[in-house]
Amino acid sequence: MSRHHASWVAALALAASPLSSYAASDAVASEMSFLDDIPVVLSAARLVQPLKDAPGAVTVIDRAMIRASGARDVAELLAWVPGFQTGRKNGSTALTTYHGLSDDAPRRMLVRVDGRSAYSPYFISGIEWAKLSVDIDDIERIEVFRGSNAAAYGSNAFLGVVNIITRPAADTPRYRVRFTEGENGIQERVLSTRQQFGDLTARLTVGRQGDNGLAPIDDTYRNQRVDARIDWQLTPDQEVEFHLGFVDNRARTGETTDISNPPRTIDNYTGFGQVRWRKQLDLGDEIKATYFHQEERSDDAYFVPLAPTIGVSFDYGNRSIRDDLEFEHLLNPRSDLRLAWGVGLREDRISSHQFFNTSDNIVIRHARVFANAEWQVSPQWTLNAGAMLEKTNDTGRRISPRFAANFHILSNTTVRAAISRAYRNLTPFERQADMRFYEKNSGLLVQQSFQPSPGLQPERVTTREIGIRQEWQSGRSNMDLRLFDERIENLLRRDTTATNATDARFPLSTWNGDSTRYYNGGYARIRGAELTGLYRPTHDTWIGGHYASLDINSNDEFADRSAPNEQFSVFAAAQIHPGWHMSLTHHFVGSMQWYTQEKNRLKAYRQTNLRLAHRFSTRGVRGEIAVGVQHWTDAFADYLPSLTRPTQAYASLRLEY
């Protein structure tokens, strides 16, 4: 660790220590009740487990941390998680990946919101953060499983899972508003209300946010969201949750210097509905069923003139529909054994003439069976075992198993070891992309940028890891070390070959007749260590951080440099005076590059965020006024060297009743 990093740790530790003792002496009874709870993880193996019994390393970001961070979306929070790389392709498009191996469309990790998969494997990108309707103030906690978790959640959880759990409707204020204004066009308006109707409680949140994006491109965006949750207690042992959401995202894109990618506005629409039914059968036994329907649509059409009377029409418009049904059973066959098993069915229907050279729907059907078990062999030993069997109509059957053993050397010291294998089913774009561009009047083929890639096999990862977890204060303060070895085979690569188009006449362009396709020619071995630590004497006071060291060896030159060798973060928060709260985060990211050319290699950079908030209460209204600075350091680039993130100051007001 460099001297610069060490000085940050020392400064934050010295700053937090007196504030910690002050805040601890002023802690209220409800806060101490929170501190008495043993921290648990809800999603690592689909079982409620103490963190020390989980089958892998898990980072938990709770509501207090989210609020203190000043983050405007979930993607920003992942900078708090070791091994994650974050960036901005443009103002509205956040990029997040775990352990690299990503271009501008990350697709090797899974995001779930209240049991619903937010992975969008329809075209190119797996996670499109701008399409999430959930407001950041409605999130109860975020659980990040660092490593493959396909045994619990399937092939999309190839290198990690982000589980977003929202607050029950009854646990939110009756009325809440939030206003944010800041530099670079930052603007946010959110209104939320909670209503009670007998045994039914409903929450509705509507909001709009946007900013002017990155310098120097024209990428202003405005995002409008509607999100609703309805909790209905049918009987003392039976409840139903309804979740509804809609997002309208309008963003500027394109470049004035690129005739084939002119400045324009893209419209993206996403809507979903979900119902989740739960029934308690016995102490610890539960069955639940979840169904959701989701539709996405994008409008992006324009015309590029090649001469006064000829030109090419581009239409990247697309539409996708997903239906997913899952049944799950949690049971305790014995006092020392717990099991979660279930089955699921999913169907995706997608269409885009530009992407696939057909107006027909591409239909993908997916079936899954899974089971995860926890066995408390003795007070010292906890064993976790699980597997997911998946079948799709284009890849056949695949099974992803996992085994983990946790040895509790002492009541607060645990050593764990785990091994797993997982597969990533490829996206329709990777398999079937056939992007052809024709002159509008003559019908001549001007270019084919992608052609279909038949015969591809799913990517495969074998993960081995060991870890040590030390806890204090009943688990509220902790330190966790993860050492890992991830071996990825059948890694997709790109090459160019002669076009497969039979109408390959291209006198109107300089195209040489080659087009891009994918093939399973790559491998990567990712080895490293992740160390996290957190000291949290009270609910609103903590100092923590993480350090990650990563080494990628691959036959793909882009993969080798797709993650920094070193990352480091420190985050702290404290009550500095009654009603006044301050938080500070500092991140260091070593040199890396996304899957782009060598000229786009990013320099190592640092960023610091500062937030000061005053909380007050009057006549039944609780409020908070906050000011903050994001990217306090000099402007930096986290995707392309030419796209910089400016320093941004902002002010926000929250009112709750």
Please give a quick description of this structure.
With 657 residues, this protein is mostly beta strands. The protein is built from eight helices and 35 strands.
Give an account of the 3D structure:
Residues 219-626 form the TonB-dependent receptor-like beta-barrel domain. This is TonB-dependent receptor. The protein has a single domain, classed as Beta Barrel (Maltoporin, Chain A). By secondary structure, it is mostly beta strands. It has a 22-stranded antiparallel barrel. Strands 3-8-9-6-7 form a five-stranded mixed beta sheet. The chain has a two-stranded antiparallel ribbon with strand order 1-2.
Write the layout of secondary structure elements.
Elements: H1 3-25, H2 29-36, E1 40-41, E2 49-50, E3 57-62, H3 63-69, H4 74-77, E4 84-90, E5 93-98, E6 110-113, E7 116-117, E8 139-146, H5 150-153, E9 160-166, E10 175-182, E11 187-197, E12 200-211, E13 221-235, E14 238-253, E15 264-282, E16 285-299, E17 301-307, E18 310-315, E19 318-334, E20 337-351, H6 353-356, E21 362-375, E22 381-392, E23 396-410, E24 413-424, H7 428-432, E25 435-438, E26 445-450, E27 459-472, E28 477-498, E29 514-538, E30 541-554, H8 557-560, E31 566-577, E32 580-589, E33 605-618, E34 621-630, E35 648-656
Parallel strand pairs: 6-9
Antiparallel strand pairs: 1-2, 3-8, 4-5, 6-7, 8-9, 10-11, 10-35, 11-12, 12-13, 13-14, 14-15, 15-16, 16-19, 17-18, 19-20, 20-21, 21-22, 22-23, 23-24, 24-27, 25-26, 27-28, 28-29, 29-30, 30-31, 31-32, 32-33, 33-34, 34-35
Keywords: Cell outer membrane, Membrane, Receptor, Signal, TonB box, Transmembrane, Transmembrane beta strand, Transport
GO molecular function, one term: siderophore uptake transmembrane transporter activity
Signal peptide: 1-23
